[in-house]
Write a structure and sequence with these properties.
With 239 residues, the protein is mainly alpha-helical. The chain has two domains: 64 residues, Arc Repressor Mutant, subunit A (Orthogonal Bundle); 152 residues, Four Helix Bundle (Hemerythrin (Met), subunit A), CATH 1.20.120. It has a two-stranded antiparallel ribbon. Helix 5 runs antiparallel to helix 8, helix 5 packs antiparallel against helix 10 and helix 9 runs antiparallel to helix 10. The longest helix is centred in the middle third of the chain and has 22 residues. It starts with 13 loop residues before the first helix and ends in a 5-residue tail after the last helix. The structure holds zinc ion (ZN). Zinc ion (ZN) binds next to helix 7 and helix 9.
């Protein structure tokens, strides 16, 4: 942060002012996502304050998701969070009449049409991303019943389809819905109930998208999501 002129500090809490000035740097993009923040020692000297104030400021920004811890005690500017995730999560917890069934219905509304559009618009790189995700699901299965790694790969497959639509809002919305589903399922032990079926179903969806058969892609996605919801209802599942 060479050449940065910080403002004199006023009577507000010192760490809040430090956090505020760092936030300004990020807001004006003098510090961009992925940039490493100056080390604690350097910040201590630049602001002329004690270490504890710097640490407190960094903790505050970290808890707000503005910066993230990196290796060696350093901090980097985080990618801007998807505000849809937190909004939808909040709505889901506040609206007592919204349940898992609503979430899965929302997934069907979004993802069946996304599969349709993906079949019409996909490029080879999207098919490659789907293949990588399916291979990762199989590797996780071979590793012993999957778990976290399987679920992440499963999610990447669905994200690859959203990306293939070329519609950024479809992608963001899908991420938000999946985030809520995942958090809702975290209350139970998250083990894929029928991971083998998920692999077979993903292949069928991928084949329809590769063939540019939009109707079939939509139909295969619907069959997959209906099966997944049934498994979630009966016990634990993902997909
Ligand atoms: Zn799936």
């Amino acid at each position: 942060m060479a050449g940065t002129n910080y403002q004199p500090l006023d009577r507000r809490k010192v760490y809040e002012q430090i956090a505020g000035q760092l936030l300004d740097q990020i807001g004006t993009r003098r510090l961009k996502p992925g940039d490493v923040l100056p080390p604690e020692r350097e910040l201590t000297e630049s602001f002329g304050v004690g270490r504890s104030s710097i640490r407190e400021a960094l903790r505050m920004l970290e808890s707000q998701g503005v910066i993230a811890a990196a290796t060696g005690g350093a901090f980097v500017v985080a990618e801007p969070a998807n505000p849809l995730n937190s909004s939808l999560r909040l709505l889901f917890s506040l609206d007592e009449r919204a349940g898992m069934h609503d979430l899965y219905e929302l997934r069907r509304i979004l993802e069946c049409e996304a599969a349709f559009l993906a079949a019409e618009r996909r490029a080879d790189e999207h098919l490659e991303a789907m293949d990588t995700a399916v291979a990762e699901m199989e590797a996780a299965l071979a590793d012993g019943r999957g778990g976290e790694r399987f679920i992440d790969a499963d999610l990447r497959f669905h994200l690859a389809i959203s990306e293939a639509t070329g519609n950024r809002l479809v992608l963001h919305s899908m991420q938000a819905v999946r985030d809520v589903v995942r958090r809702a399922l975290l209350t139970v032990v998250l083990i894929p109930r029928s991971p083998e079926s998920a692999v077979v179903e993903h292949r069928a969806i991928r084949a329809a998208i590769a063939d540019r058969d939009a109707d079939r892609a939509r139909q295969e996605m619907r069959a997959h999501l209906v099966r997944v919801e049934r498994d979630v209802e009966q016990g634990v599942g993902s997909g």
